[in-house]
Amino acid sequence: MTASPKEHTIKINETEPGTATLSVRTLKLSDFRNYASARLDLDARPVVLAGENGSGKTNLLEAVSLLGPGHGLRGRPYAELARKDGQGGFAIAASVRTRHGELDIGTGYTPRAGDDGTGRTVRIAGKDASAGALGDYVKQVFLIPAMDGLFTGPGSERRRFLDRLVVAIAPGLRTSLSRYERAMRQRNRLFQMREHGKSLFEGLEEQMAESGVAIAAARLDAVERLSALIDERRESEDQTPFPHAVLALHGTVEADLAERSATEAEDAFRILLEEGRERDRAASRTLEGPHRSDLLVVHGPKNAPAAICSSGEQKALLLGLVLAKAELIKTLEGIAPLVLLDEVAAHLDGVRREALFAEILRLKVQAWMTGTDKELFSPLGQSAQILDVNRGIISA
Ligand SMILES: Nc1ncnc2c1ncn2[C@@H]1O[C@H](COP(=O)(O)OP(=O)(O)O)[C@@H](O)[C@H]1O
Ligand SMILES: [Mg+2]
């Protein structure tokens, strides 16, 4: 790892809450994707990466996304991110301006005999940390072409889309999510092992009920806040040409929580799991719970489910939703998150493109945008840092 050896001192920024901008100031890559080595020195302004297909733009966005928690914006195994002709590992070192001052972050992967390529090392301010801990410092939202099918694809994608927001505004929820997952996996394994021990199931179902209700409550809260923000923006004078979304959260526990207290919902979910045991046993998995919840999105102006809207309408809706997420994080966390937008400009007409730029400048986010046509970004002028990417070489 190449985390800077200099001692990190946490300085509290004197800016007002809500006005700070999270920004990557230095980014160094070694053996990451098509970059043998690269270095970027930046200020807080948005970053535009322009270059031909295959030049390494999305790879750079992916590297930035790994400064936050999770598996990066493509969600690929880490072994795949190591440069093909390199040593099998990669390293990313960055200096990031956070609300608490400048922070050194390092992350990387070194293959080891017998590992499955899913773990990465993380250093925050020179100390070993978990990838999840990055979420306390680096907040981000992203939109990539692979998300074009978000409204028509499987519910799991929409759940992840929502849960990324939930975790950004309630980092403690990471624990509940992994606790729920773990207990559910163990319960499913009991079915596969033809285990009938009542107490084994009761223990796990208790954990699932507790963490499941915490997850559902945090999701409801996030959806409510996001909806309130969207409504507020609709009513304000400076409307964006991005259609507003109407959101609904569908799920057994979420619906239950709307009607009763958390304790009651916990009991109800525990009983549901107990009563569903034989049905779940037949399926060899847990059929009901927050792991099946879905975020339903309606195109507000058309009053039509997003899934039946045109692909252009879906794209504009999604972009508006991602920007609303960024604004909500900024409002609640007091710092404008990184906004990673892969290939968005090319799919917008001129009016919407300028509206996107205006929105990015209004939110004061360090947005990272990619595109093959540099000209499309010219309205940004000096408000952005425009870089050329050419076969793994970055130049201003
Ligand atoms: N692990 C890797 N090692 C070397 N090259 C890679 C690796 N993974 C991807 N690439 C290459 O990186 C190039 C740039 O990819 P990408 O960043 O997606 O391009 P774009 O600029 O179109 O977004 C592609 O040609 C791809 O084959
Ligand atoms: Mg790309």
Q: What this model shows, in words?
A:
- Keywords: ATP-binding, Cytoplasm, DNA damage, DNA repair, DNA replication, DNA-binding, Nucleotide-binding, SOS response.
- The RecF protein is involved in DNA metabolism; it is required for DNA replication and normal SOS inducibility. RecF binds preferentially to single-stranded, linear DNA. It also seems to bind ATP.
- This is DNA replication and repair protein RecF.
- The structure is a single chain.
- The protein is α/β, with parallel strands linked by helices and 396 residues long.
- 38% of the residues lie in helices and 22% in strands.
- The chain has ten helices and 17 strands.
- The protein has helices at 57-65, 78-81, 155-169, 173-192, 198-235, 252-259, 262-275, 277-283, 311-333, 350-363; strands at residues 20-21, 23-32, 35-41, 47-50, 90-98, 101-109, 121-124, 127-129, 140-143, 245-250, 294-299, 304-305, 335-336, 338-341, 367-371, 385-390, 393-395.
- The chain has a six-stranded antiparallel sheet with strand order 3-2-5-6-7-8. Strands 9-14-15-4-16-17 form a six-stranded mixed sheet, with helices on both faces.
- A hairpin with a 2-residue loop joins strand 2 (23-32) and strand 3 (35-41).
- The chain is globular, with a radius of gyration of 22 Å.
- Mean pLDDT is 92; it is low at 1-18.
- The structure holds adenosine-5'-diphosphate and magnesium ion.
- Adenosine-5'-diphosphate binds next to helix 1.
- Residues 57-58, 342-343, 370 line the site of magnesium ion.
